[in-house]
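Lab manual, section 2.4: Encoding a predicted structure.

Procedure: take the sequence of the chain (214 residues), apply the prediction step described in section 2.3, and record the output as structure tokens. A sample record is shown.
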Amino acid sequence: MKFDRRSFVSAIFALTALCTAAVPALAQTAGKDYTPITPAQPTDDASKIEVIEFFSYGCPHCADFNPLLTAWAAKLPGDVVLKKVPVSFGRAAWANAAKMYYALEVTGDGGKFDADIFKAIHQERVNLFDEKTIAEWVAKKGVDAKKFADAFNSFGVMSKVKRGDQLAQVYKITGVPTLAVEGKYLVGGKDFNEALAIADKLIAKSRSEKSGKK
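Recorded output:
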């Protein structure tokens, strides 16, 4: 899909409506600090406590949250894993952004350029929703251009994008960024810092549940 500058700006404004701040409260109360996921969803590795961030490069709130989340993730204990799931909400622009995320995983550059991508889109107004622009931009970053191009529209990457959107539906995600813990809890609250504080408490709760403690 081709986007001119006007379309790009329009897409930013339209898609911003799909973003919400991830927001928990200080007390750990179901329905207030977190929403139980019903039914609970399986995680990829039963030996780890899984935290998912549902996000999009196109979301300005996700851009604001990213440095806080990155710093938080760097301090996670060994029994916790952070999994990032880009979502499209059915929008072609965000689907291309999700494809970029997964194609960079294929080239071995997964997560390496997250901060740069957010900056390019939201500060420098680079149209990283257009396939040609995306390809040119990642090549300038030193990414293997052919490997990236082959991956971008590959069955594997398309399947991951579809799976991410399906997962968002199962988890009943209505806005991003949103954190989910252990397939059981959607983190709520009023700002990003509190979201991470509640996520820490839900990680501890999940650890106790895994060990059979109440």
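Check your result against the sample. Strands lie at 34-36, 49-55, 80-86, 178-181, 185-187.
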